[in-house]
Design goal:
Layout (H helix, E strand, L loop, with lengths): L8 H14 L5 E7 L2 E8 L14 H13 L3 E9 L20 E6 L4 E7 L4 E3 L4 H7 L1 H4 L14 H4 L15
The structure holds zinc ion.
Zinc ion binds next to strand 3.
Length: 176
Amino acid sequence: MSGAVTVPAGLLDAIAAQARRDAPREVCGWLAGADGAVRDFYPVPNAARRPEREFLMEPQAQIDSLRRIREAGLTVLGTYHSHPKSPPVPSERDLGLSLYPELLHLIFSVAYEEFGLWRITESARRRVALAPEAQDALGLREEKSRTRGASGDAKGRQGKLRGRRGGFSRRADPQT
Ligand SMILES: [Zn+2]
């Protein structure tokens, strides 16, 4: 998949609303779709010990949501979570999501009112463009310049990633 990723604007609004409602706790869940286009999101409770600073998908709810996604005829295209206070840029801990380099990672910053969509690998975190219609709906285009240069220093962190736990439980494989 290359180029801008289509995410329905209504879905972004709903994720933003959930993130605002649960702040200062982070929210998390799956992005599901078909043919590379995101069509729906599936919230999963955040079971992290410090949910205001990190997220960990509650294992049983994670498994249940993956089944619902399958039953809906969709596949997991990525994850989403919120940053109550920081910009929508993958944190140190989020770099553990590089365990799933095929997935998209959508982050909504409550404080900055801004989305970031990412692919995260051990060697890089790369911002992925949201399709223009979604950007227009949220006024994101004007804010683009605020977040440039976010992918600079991921390389030096490779060594730290080893053995790091991802944001979601590894009991369930997101590809199934
Ligand atoms: Zn994060």
